[in-house]
Q: What sequence folds into this?
């Protein structure tokens, strides 16, 4: 249960990081 919760948080954090990185790349591209 703890592992599943941690894994879920890690995945969300990774997605959030990717989204922020994507936005940064888009701004730099402009």
A:
């Amino acid at each position: 249960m703890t592992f599943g919760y941690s894994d879920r948080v890690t995945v969300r954090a990774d997605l959030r990081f990717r989204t922020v990185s994507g936005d940064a790349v888009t701004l730099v591209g402009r």
User: Anything to note?
Assistant: The mean pLDDT is 77.
